[in-house]
């Protein structure tokens, strides 16, 4: 496989996922300014939702980025990296949208989590494939 192409694919999804996390952090700051909250969420529903949407992305994106980077280094096909990155990006975006709109269950939040888990499982299986001699 072309390691350079795999690296470029991983770089694309890393950039887009980091852009998502950055955007979610800006939304938290906007809610902090709006509600004059310096720390925590003070139980304000909009604050809680913004903080959790950011926090959830911050919990799921870094391990996924590590997995994508390792796949690129291990020589995975750029197509494998693009499929995984796309599923992660769509999943994390849908989850953030669903969580930002409602603290309860929602269609975007559910589909986003399912896509994230599918991407994680695909990453796990693919990484194990590349780990075995």
The profile of the biggest β sheet is: none
- By CATH reckoning, the class would read Mainly Alpha
Q: Please give the domain count.
A: 1
Number of strands: 0
Give the mean pLDDT.
94
Plain-language structure description:
- By secondary structure, the chain is an all-alpha fold.
- It has one domain: Up-down Bundle (Four Helix Bundle (Hemerythrin (Met), subunit A)).
- The chain contains 4 helices and no strands.
- It has helices spanning about 5-35, 45-75, 80-100, 105-130.
- Helix 2 packs antiparallel against helix 3, helix 2 runs parallel beside helix 4 (about 105-130) and helix 3 packs antiparallel against helix 4.
- The protein is elongated, with a radius of gyration of 16 Å.
- The protein starts with a helix and ends with a helix.
